[in-house]
């Protein structure tokens, strides 16, 4: 039920953080993995990790906000593997400041990286998945899809958009046997959240206080949900937004 042998996945931003954690899970379950990211050296290290797990892996340097580059990514995947079964839209960024301090360029940078990229990658992947008779799209949202924060206006808007985009895609593509779901990570230890710890006073203490698990998540915690949503175990799950947060979102 959870076997991903002969399946092929693209993971955007798959060379670190949550994306790498998910890519490791897919690789361990037998999938071939395309690591799609801008930092070629970091992607090379990620591919070596995945190959050590026994997977066939490929690094593709791509700007996921560029339509032509995204179509090139999908074409490269098809040429190398002959198919595409799984897409994880994980690429993301954040600029932490209150909304009144944002510039339009900063707003566009966050929205384009976090939300528009998911549209572009999904749009490009759809024909291959339809041709294959089905597929899985996993969009990475956030706790900020649920909560507001003064320091994350564009990030929260983009992640809220991810949830609604997920629902629209799930409805549109159900007849093609393509399941589309969103994962809402809580506070996970990554380079991105390391910056947040430095920039947001009291964040670490608040996360530990509010999370029933009494710890931050790790990228290893993201592997299981990725395998579930990428496998036949989730064939009747679509349009869902699933928190992976150690219980953070259930606390008042």
Structure notes:
Helices cover 46% and strands 15% of the residues. The longest helix is centred in the middle third of the chain and has 29 residues, at 104-132. A 7-stranded parallel β-sheet has the order 3-2-1-4-5-6-7, with helices on both faces. It has 8 helices and 7 strands, in the order E-H-E-H-E-H-E-H-E-H-E-H-H-H-E. Helix 4 (104-132) packs parallel to helix 5 (153-173). By secondary structure, the protein is of the alpha/beta class. The chain has a single domain (8-187, 220-245), classed as NAD(P)-binding Rossmann-like Domain (Rossmann fold, 3-Layer(aba) Sandwich), CATH 3.40.50.720.
State the main characteristics.
252 residues; alpha/beta; 7-stranded parallel β-sheet; 8 helices; 46% helix; 15% strand
Secondary-structure blueprint of this entry?
Elements (H helix, E strand, L loop, with lengths): L7 E5 L4 H12 L3 E6 L2 H13 L4 E5 L5 H15 L4 E4 L14 H29 L2 E6 L12 H21 L4 E8 L5 H9 L3 H8 L12 H8 L10 E4 L8
Parallel strand pairs: 1-2, 1-4, 2-3, 4-5, 5-6, 6-7
Helix pairs in contact: 1-2, 1-8, 3-4, 4-5
Residue-averaged pLDDT: 96
- Major sheet: arrangement of strands: 3-2-1-4-5-6-7
What is the general shape? globular
Number of strands: 7
- Percentage of β-strand residues: 15-25%
Largest sheet: 7 strands, parallel
Q: Tell me the distance between the termini.
A: 36 Å
Number of domains: 1
- CATH level-two architecture: 3-Layer(aba) Sandwich
CATH superfamily: NAD(P)-binding Rossmann-like Domain
